[in-house]
Amino acid sequence: MNDLELKLKGKVPGPDTGIEVRKSVCAICDPGTQCGLDLYVKDGVIIKVAGTKEAPHSHGTLCSKGAATRQYVYSPERVLTPLRRTGTRGSGQFEPISWDEALDEIAARLAEAKERFGPESVMFFSGYAKWARAYLMRFALDFGSPNYLTESSTCATAMIMAQQLTYGAPAAPDFKNTSCVVYWSHNPSATKSLNLVGIQKKLDEGVKVIVVDPRVTDLAQRADVFLQLRPGTDGALALAFGHVIVEEGLYDKDFVEKWTVGFNDYRALVAAMTPEKAAEICGVSAADIRAAARLYSTSKPACIHFSAAPVVHHTNGVQNYRAVFCLIGLTGNLDIAGGNRMNPPSLVHQPGGFPTREREFTGANRLVDMPERIGSARFPVWARLCNEAQACDIPRQIKTGDPYPLKALFALGLNHRMWPGSQSFIEQLCELDFIVDADPFLTDSAKYADIVLPSATSVERREIRCWPMGYVQFTQPAIEPVGEARSDVDILAALSAKLGLGDDLLEAGIEACVEWMLEPSGLTVAELNKHPEGMWVPGAKPPAERKYLAAGFRTPSGKVEFASGVLAEYDLCGYEALPEYREPAMSPVSRPDLAAEFPLVLNLGARLPMYQHTRTFRLPWTRSLSPDPHADINPSDAERSGVEDGSWIRVSTPAGSVLVRAHITGIVREGDVHLYHDWPQANANDLIDGDYLDPISGFPGYRSSLCRIEPADDQQEGAHHE
Questions:
Q1: pLDDT band at 183 (very low <50, low <70, confident <90, very high)
Q2: First to last CA, the chain
Q3: Three-state secondary structure call for residue 419
Q4: CATH of residue 7
Q5: What percentage of the chain has pLDDT greater than the value 70?
Q6: Residue 435's beta-bridge partner residues?
Q7: Can you tell me the mean pLDDT for 314-337?
Q8: Residue 273: phi, psi to the nearest 5?
Q9: What is the pLDDT of residues 611-653, one digit of tens each?
Q10: Residue 146 resides in a domain
Q11: SS3 of residue 303 by DSSP
């Protein structure tokens, strides 16, 4: 073997091998990670994937999902051309059509719905990916529809609402400068595994760690205090923290006096939630509650590392997290180094240390002159705090036509399995006159569309990203799109022109849009184009501490609100201004009648690190790491139910059942069952009803319901569902 052959075999880049390294980002876990990719390209094909070592956010590391990028890009399930449905919805029967045919038909059908039923009858939905959301929202409002929706109707937004109701805006943990961190239902091993190196370093430096989680996570085993609570009881635990901190005088008296409202009422509320009472509710010891509350309140500074969804995936979710977030203000750890810092986003939900006009680009201010959004009447606080419609109310409005009919859906990356009662949800969507879905893959949801458009992946398109350390990257396509795939923004620009919406900026394309959004920062597309690997933003800097001293907080009172002024306005809806604890609507305590038949607490949606919903489930590498659906079951519960490790079992709720393998493990509490998401043949979200929702946010109660387990009739029954 000669030298060139050796280089080719080793995939060594250079002029002689024709292999070039091109920079990109992995957007599979969108948008909080965005790891740098080095793509080795030969003859227009990616032949090797590695992490970008100079990327200041990922430092050359990739998780299993990013490592499988080639399988993702070249999946046999990629949509290669626009498709028109020829069979019944869901059948997967399509015929290829041209882009002109597809765009003409979409424009004609959307224009028809607009003319006959009003622009509000058309919904515009963004699921995967999040990078194009600003463009889609602008497009929807150009069209005249207020019904811009996203998967954030079930992910993250309720957590943000809980912060808005308490102190006006999100406040992220400043892990780098903290002395103590509370991981409140946040498990980076499964969701942000590349952060583990930094976490390990801080642990070695002696940072104090408190973990609150129903499962024994990796971090729980290193924690100074671990509180393994019953799912859905976070609010009671947080109020017990407040009880200890107030009773023992450990709160920040100066901050509380000057910068909070409702403290006296809050003091009375937490006085009733003693650690002993919370111990009975949560299933943890009163001594551990006191130890954790003292450690958090006396370590200076301290932060709370919260999660996007687990705590708000309960029928009491917003108030549960409000109780947690009150602790940040109670201890004076708000907007200080090492505490929870307020850092406004620059682009795609991420702070970058520089100003942009992304929000102005969306045109969200136009919503005030439009009809009410889906879910506005049912979830008025959602409508007040969020610029989106609440997608969990779509089935009700399709069925009732109240307050107006819904007739069409234009979606980027639709995944009906993200909603509670998923099968019922997609059946309601089938009542629409017209459905479009743009997606890289012919997913199960795409099979219900009338037109399917092939979307480009992140390595085949341009997109702009930023990171909190003041880094920005405007990617360039590393390869030509597979088949006839197009960027989502290119699709929107072309459709805008077909519809005659008159949006010159959007129709000019992504570079013009990015240039406009970046204008306040001083950055230009020309400069970013010189740095395809990304660049440090000149003058970028972390936000100042204690910004509230000059501007106050973005709440009705201008202060941190133990008693929410917004919720107080909606008391007729049954909302309480204080973060009072309420049992999950379906628990052994609230529904002992159901618990007699379904004695176990079911926690849906636990994540495995190799899966991102069902997207990487379809890839051979990641699928091989955990090929069968499974549920975590405590050994005592398994023994009582006659269930053996690895055997097929049936998990049943009042709403339905699925077949999965039993994983018997001590990481879960006795009395709990944790069912992982991702497997289409064992969809966890079909196990709760579509109306099992938090009344404030409209979020589904995925993390606390009731179930029973039993052996499947035989292994063949389970195997049949693979």
A1: very high
A2: 45
A3: coil
A4: 3.30.200.210
A5: 96
A6: 409
A7: 98
A8: -100, 75
A9: 666 677 778 888 788 889 999 999 999 999 999 999 999 999 9
A10: yes
A11: strand
- Read out DSSP for 383-402? HHH-SS--GGGHHHHHHH--
The model's pTM is 0.96
Whether the per-residue pLDDT at 150 is higher than 60: the answer is: yes
Answer whether residue 683 is part of any domain: yes
Same domain, 140 and 181: no
Distances (CA, A) of 698 to 60, 101, 213, 316, 682: 39, 38, 23, 10, 24
The number of residues making up the chain comes to: 722
pLDDT at residue 714 tops 60: no
Beta bridge partners of 672: 601
Residue 18's domain comprises 3-73
Identify whether residues 12 and 128 lie together within a single domain.
no
Q: Which residue, among 39, 24, 49, 72, has the nearest Cα to 616 in the 3D structure? A: 72
Classify residue 653 by burial, with Cβ atoms within 10 Å: 0-12, 13-18, 19+.
buried
- In a 13 Å sphere around the CA of 370, the CA atoms on its Cβ side amount to 26
In a domain, 699, yes or no: yes
Measured distance CA(210)–CA(252) in Å, rounded: 20
Q: Are 604 and 684 in contact (CB under 8 A)?
A: yes
Q: Are 566 and 261 in contact (CB under 8 A)?
A: no
551's tokens: 């501007």
Is a pLDDT exceeding 60 seen at residue 718? no
Amino acid 237: pLDDT = 98
For the stretch 661-704, pLDDT in tens is 999 999 999 999 999 876 788 999 999 999 999 999 999 999 99
Rounded (5°) CA angle 349-354-358: 45
Dihedral sign for Cα atoms in the order 565, 566, 568, 574: negative
Structure tokens at 445: 């949801």
